[in-house]
Amino acid sequence: MPQTLVVKIGTSSLTHPDTGRLALSNIASLVETLTELREQHNRVVLVSSGAVGIGCRRLNLPERPRTMARKQAIAAVGQGRLMRIYDDLFSNLKQPIAQILLTRRDLMQRSSYVNAYNTFQELFELGVIPIVNENDTVAVDELKFGDNDTLSALVASLVEADWLFLLTDVDRLYSADPRSSPDAQPIVQVSASQLATLQVEAGNKGSQWGTGGMATKLAAARIATSAGVRTVITHGQKPGYLPKVLQGEQIGTQFEPQPQPENARKRWIAYGLVAMGKLYLDDGAVRAICEGGKSLLAAGITQTEGEFQVSDAVQLCDRNGNEIARGLVNYNSSEIQQIQGLRSDQIPKILGYMGTETVIHRDNLVLA
Ligand SMILES: Nc1ncnc2c1ncn2[C@@H]1O[C@H](COP(=O)(O)OP(=O)(O)O)[C@@H](O)[C@H]1O
Ligand SMILES: N[C@@H](CCC(=O)OP(=O)(O)O)C(=O)O
């Protein structure tokens, strides 16, 4: 049966570690595999890093840039070259491709989120393989995905993928970084409940050209599996593993999806949006939301943090500051400061108008 596959390849698999040179045979082999999977009527998305790494190589820079502006400029050099390489290779196999550059802002507005969804669906119908990267040149710090592992998980959630493959320069996840801990134990299978409490030394540094190490891949696995997407970490030098995994072979580290994923709108609230503030809740409100599936009323709010507008996303925290949920607010921050702790029937007197009864309606609330 045709499936929707999102395949993310990191800089560490696209370039040689020592020289930063393109790993051409590796890329060609990935292109062949993805084309075959497409020809078997699967919907295929490639999320490709490499713009910064390839830009560095083009400009003969010995290491990744540190400043934001330099990184953005180098990504602009590298992205064009990256797409040219893909287009040459895919064109040999007569496989059309498309470039999609996203920023977090594009997934924040419901309308652009839905537009992005529609564009992917049209591309699938046209038999195209979309190639996605972060739009590094325009993304500002607070609105960056920051790494393509997170971006690929959000894309997998957006296109309602069946599988997310995170291809990297190790064959799977280990209990610790196998480079520095030779005794690290391989992790083969992770159930949805194990993932919540999984303890590994994941490192956040990455290889010389990559970013994030395993920490961002684990975070991506959490996002994707909670959206119902089966996630696999495996070696980028062996793209031929992909069809084998689809046929049920136990390769890499496989993360089972959550059995009851959130619906598309709730996934957008949970992962598409950037929280603009925090509301601290009393114990009763925490219980009502976590156990009772109730809406948030002003009475349960003890403290408001940040400046935000109506319909912005905020984090809901318990008295210790632990995030318990996220949601879209019906009042702005200064209004909530005035009505927090009050009964809903007191709101009109304080604000001078009759707003909605709930501060966050349960349809706009997602548990953490
Ligand atoms: N627990 C772990 N298991 C496996 N690899 C790990 C772990 N912790 C850190 N790493 C490191 O993460 C690196 C891959 O991350 P990164 O360089 O960001 O890759 P990519 O460019 O593919 O995103 C590996 O080379 C490995 O050394
Ligand atoms: N957008 C950046 C990707 C940065 C990134 O996440 O890199 P990696 O850790 O190699 O997947 C680029 O194209 O270089």
3D structure, described in words:
The chain is of the alpha/beta class and 368 residues long. It folds into 2 domains: 4-266, Acetylglutamate kinase-like (Carbamate kinase); 275-367, PUA domain (Archaeosine Trna-guanine Transglycosylase, Chain: A, domain 4), CATH 2.30.130.10. 38% of the residues lie in helices and 17% in strands. It contains 14 helices and 13 strands. The strands form 2 sheets. Strands 3-4-2-1-5-7-8-6 form an 8-stranded mixed β-sheet, sandwiched between helices. Strands 10-9-11-12-13 form a 5-stranded mixed β-sheet, sandwiched between helices. Helix 3 packs across helix 4 (68-92) and helix 7 (148-158) packs parallel to helix 9 (213-226). The longest helix is centred in the first third of the chain and has 25 residues, at 68-92. It starts with a strand and ends with a strand. The mean pLDDT is 92. Bound molecules: adenosine-5'-diphosphate (ADP) and ligand VHF. Pathway: Amino-acid biosynthesis; L-proline biosynthesis; L-glutamate 5-semialdehyde from L-glutamate: step 1/2. This is Glutamate 5-kinase.
